[in-house]
Structures are given as structure tokens and as C-alpha cells.
Design goal:
two-stranded antiparallel ribbon, 6 helices, about 55% helix
């Protein structure tokens, strides 16, 4: 979501609160790669109708039938637990793939007492006068 906010704001960083609803809408209506579904569908059981569909008279608007829509929505809600379970499975598979890929690249290291090592220097890196040119590591 931070990326979406950065793209929307560009020059007007102080207006982030006004842009947040649009960024949240975009996030909630975009299929996520991990689940293959939109967060909106996983929460409500149906696909959201975006404003352009209403303004441009899409087939969903033109062939709208209130009775059929209510029945269809009931059926979608009955299928919601299955859709959520499939999304959960897809997410777990993706996490496992990412874990396997990461673990292939990890190099096992062992240290003994009195070994000299470098320590990541997270504290004060951005506060020093060197800025991003400051050392990321401290040690010998």
C-alpha cells in the first residue's frame, strides 16, 4: 500500500490522508498474487463492481436482475469458505516455494568463541553525517 500511496502522491506528500481511500480501494479490488483473489472477494464472497462498469453500462449492469442477483449472491456466499480455503492453500504453497528458494541460497556458517566477525550496524546509520554512505557494518 505504501507503493500505491507514493505513486498517487508524487509531489503532494502532505495530502496522503485524502488519497488513502482511493489507494485502499485499489488494493482491495486488485487480485493478489499470493491468493489469486481480491481481498474484497475473500471478505464478501463476490467480485466488486468498479465505477467504470456502472458509468459505461457493462453487461453486468445491463443484464442486472434483482431476484437472480439475490439468488446468485446466496450461492456465492455458500461457496465463500471454499474460495477462502483455496486462497489459503495457494498462499501456503507460495510461502513454501519462497522458503525453499531462500534456503537454497543460505550458506551455513559456524563460529567459535574468539572468532572475529562483522556485526550489522543498524543503529545510527541514517543519523550520521555520512548519511547513506556510512558503513553498514562495524567490527574488525
Amino acid at each position: 500500500m505504501l507503493v500505491g500511496l507514493k505513486k498517487r502522491l508524487q509531489d503532494a506528500k502532505e495530502a496522503w490522508a485524502e488519497e488513502l481511500p482511493q489507494v485502499l480501494w485499489a488494493y482491495r479490488t486488485t487480485p493478489q498474487s499470493a491468493t489469486g483473489e481480491t481481498p474484497f472477494r475473500l471478505a464478501y464472497g463476490i467480485e466488486v463492481m468498479i465505477p467504470i462498469e456502472i458509468n459505461e453500462q457493462s453487461p453486468r449492469v445491463n443484464f442486472y436482475d434483482e431476484v437472480g442477483n439475490i439468488q446468485g449472491h446466496k450461492e456465492e456466499l455458500e461457496l465463500l469458505p471454499e474460495v477462502q480455503e483455496q486462497a489459503q492453500i495457494r498462499e501456503a504453497v507460495l510461502k513454501q516455494r519462497m522458503t525453499n528458494r531462500y534456503n537454497k541460497k543460505v550458506i551455513q556458517r559456524s563460529f567459535s568463541p574468539d572468532d572475529l566477525v562483522l556485526i550489522k550496524n543498524d543503529i545510527g546509520v541514517n543519523k550520521s553525517r555520512d548519511g547513506k554512505l556510512a558503513a553498514n557494518w562495524k567490527g574488525p
